[in-house]
Design goal:
Blueprint lengths: L2 H20 L6 E6 L2 E7 L2 H4 L6 H13 L7 E7 L3 H10 L3 E6 L1 H6 L5 H10 L38
Bound molecules: zinc ion.
Zinc ion binds next to α4.
């Protein structure tokens, strides 16, 4: 990693640490950089904003798109303190930056109590699986929510705990 990229990543980490200390949200932050200049910063605001989608990457993407007056981040780089969760990864794909750098891995986040592996298990099941809304993940699909040709997204809220 080049020195400039390293310093953007270090900035994201510093923002993440400060965010956790301020109790604004989880220890996560992200920057959007274009042409070597930071155009937006985002921190996790889930608990302070009571917004489960206010992950650092989403907050940064929204701010960057506002700053650019465009719905895509063409030619931009995202620097995140942590490997993006599935929601943020989806948002990143829709925003289409040129590159994403991250510091901690999803495994590191899991160790700290922020485990998103249940979502990846869910994604692996989602397509073409029919079942009730509360069907346990991994259980055989019981077709009580949609017709035979329909598709349901099985969701088990036991796995969706945000660490306090
Ligand atoms: Zn996320």
């Amino acid at each position: 990693m080049e020195g400039e990229s390293q310093s953007f990543l270090e900035r994201a980490i510093a923002l993440a640490v400060a965010n956790a200390r301020n109790s604004d949200g989880g220890p996560f932050a992200a920057l959007v950089v274009k042409d070597g200049r930071v155009i937006a910063e985002g921190v996790n605001l889930v608990t302070s904003a009571n917004d489960p989608t206010a992950h650092a990457e989403v907050v940064a993407i929204r701010a960057a798109c506002r700053a650019l007056g465009h719905f895509q981040l063409e030619g931009c780089e995202i620097y995140s303190s942590c490997e993006p969760c599935p929601m943020c990864l989806g948002a990143i794909y829709w925003a289409r930056p040129a590159r994403v750098y991250y510091a901690a891995t999803a495994a590191d986040a899991s160790q700290a109590g922020f485990d998103d592996s249940f979502i990846y298990r869910q994604i692996a099941l989602a397509h073409g699986v029919s079942g009730g809304l509360n069907a346990p993940i991994g259980a055989p699909a019981s077709n009580n929510f949609t017709g035979n040709s329909g598709r349901a997204f099985m969701f088990d809220s036991r796995y969706a705990q945000y660490p306090e």
